[in-house]
Design brief:
By secondary structure, the protein is mainly β. The protein has 3 helices and 35 strands. Helices cover 6% and strands 43% of the residues. The structure holds CU-O-CU linkage and copper (II) ion (CU).
């Protein structure tokens, strides 16, 4: 009898967990108002995400066409892989614009069967330009095209990637760098180089190369290396041969960064660090831990090949680096809404699949929270990692200020992130101003974790979406 009841309960849990073939991001989730006023979303005078566009009129300052297609790519002599690419290359073309530019990017899907979108990771674009299949647009199927238009209002290092079946598509190569330079840049002879770390089946690449790369740089040249981690796992960068500063994190300049040396830089999945230094008389090496891939900046063509070296001064800690500076809110601010995001594990079914799944606040996808905010709110999140795994948490459309880690307030430069690398059993408090209406994904950037259910949303009151997730419309953002 008991067994029968148990079987009945399991059967029902299985049945209930199956996702319909088409569903709205709005219909699911356990709605959480974070102690703020609770209105039903979309019940009166709502706005649809497809109205929340960038400027539709006006001549773009920068225009690019990104063609998604399969291509053979050579990562090192004799090391060729079948990649999914933008314009036949991995990473895709680097987009470099100036702050304030109107950007127009047209995505053309040539032959990626799942469909493709482009998400501008860390660029706080209007919601309709955010590139999430099934939430802000439909996936762009083979033979179709889609145009994104937005003003590049921030400045710094960002990246772009497909947000359709992203756990597979990003890994296969559908990503690239997106750099926004200051409007007026002093005309100096400087080296400004983007370096994306990515694991391919053929090895770990820096940029488009696996193995050692050399580049001649005159001593005295100001250098900025824009480090990007496009993997689902953390990467440790070792920069040896010179003191350097961490000038920016996730596209936000740090205040008063001091020179450091021999420190390892751990970049969580999706993170960016800009490091700066003046080219010394000797060679400088950038190594990726656990690989033989490296970038060597040499001051003299006769410089010997560097051998892999590890910086032994421990790990760089952003929570106490640089000088404090006034922030628009902080630990003592009254927040309009305070949310808990507690990551755990739980036995259950997701879409009929039984497993020990990721859970948020005790609930499995798609019952993971729908965090409701109103425009203008000051919002605080407490992120608790109740698992031993690393979860690089990424909120779309906003940058969050890190207030504390493991109960200790941050003490250095204001530390703003869009992707926070939460290590096993860590706890963070972060805060942001709800100033970009829409429905925004908030998920783990270990994209396999996201596709295994570590996905939720922050939604503004009154915003609705006409797009649908699921097999019917073929929209699978994770
Ligand atoms: Cu870089 Cu939702 O992603
Ligand atoms: Cu995760």
């Amino acid at each position: 009898m008991l067994l029968l009841a148990l079987a009945g309960w399991v059967g029902k849990a299985w049945w209930d967990s199956r996702l319909p073939s088409s569903y709205s991001a709005m219909q699911f989730g356990s709605t959480d108002f974070g102690g703020g006023p609770a209105h039903d979303h979309g019940d009166h005078g709502g706005v649809s995400v497809d109205q929340l566009t960038g400027p539709r009129a006006g001549k773009p300052d920068y225009r690019i066409t990104l063609v998604a297609r399969k291509a053979e790519v050579e990562l090192a002599p004799g090391r060729t892989i079948e990649a999914w690419t933008f314009n036949g290359q991995v990473p895709g073309p680097e987009i470099r614009v100036h702050q304030g530019d109107l950007v127009e990017a047209t995505l053309v899907n040539e032959d990626i069967d799942d469909g493709v979108t482009i998400h501008w990771h860390g660029v706080d674009v209007p919601n309709a330009e955010d590139g999430v299949a099934g939430v802000t647009q439909d996936a762009v199927m083979p033979g179709e095209r889609y145009t994104y238009r937005f003003r590049a209002e921030q400045r710094g290092t960002f990246w772009y990637h497909s947000h359709q079946v992203s756990s597979r598509q990003v890994r296969r190569g559908l990503y690239g760098a997106f750099v926004i330079e200051p409007r007026h840049q002093p005309r100096r002879r400087a080296l400004d180089l983007t370096v994306i770390a990515h694991d391919f089946s053929g090895g770990t690449a820096l940029g488009s190369h696996v193995g050692q790369q050399r580049r001649l740089v005159a001593p005295g040249t100001p250098v900025r290396l824009r480090l990007v981690n496009s993997n689902s796992f953390g990467e440790r960068f070792h920069l040896v041969g010179t003191p350097f500063r961490v000038a920016a994190i996730d596209g936000t300049d740090l205040n008063g960064p001091t020179p450091i040396e021999y420190k390892t830089l751990l970049l969580g999945a999706g993170a960016r660090y800009d490091v700066t230094f003046v080219m010394p008389q000797y060679s400088v090496g950038l190594f990726l831990e656990g690989t033989t891939t490296a970038l060597q900046l040499i001051s003299d063509p006769d410089d010997p090949q560097l051998h892999v070296e590890e910086a032994e001064g421990g790990e760089f800690d952003p929570s106490g680096y640089g000088r404090p500076k006034a922030t628009p809110f902080g630990a003592t601010t009254h927040f309009d809404r305070s949310f808990l995001l507690k990551i755990g594990k739980k036995v259950g079914f997701i879409n009929g699949r039984p497993r020990y799944h990721w859970a948020v606040n005790g609930k499995l996808f798609p019952e993971t929270p729908m965090y409701m905010v109103s425009r203008g709110d000051l919002v605080k999140f407490k992120i608790v990692n109740d698992t031993g795994s690393v979860h690089p948490m990424h909120l779309h459309g906003h940058h969050v200020l890190v207030l504390s880690r493991n109960g200790k307030p941050t003490t250095g430069s204001p530390w703003w992130v869009d992707t926070l690398n939460v290590l096993g059993d860590e706890e963070y408090e972060v805060a942001f101003r709800a100033d970009n209406p829409g429905i925004w994904m908030d998920h783990c950037h270990n994209l396999q974790h996201a596709s295994d259910g570590l996905t939720m949303h922050v939604a503004y009151e009154g915003v609705t979406t006409p797009f649908r997730l699921g097999a019917g419309p073929d929209n699978h953002p994770e």
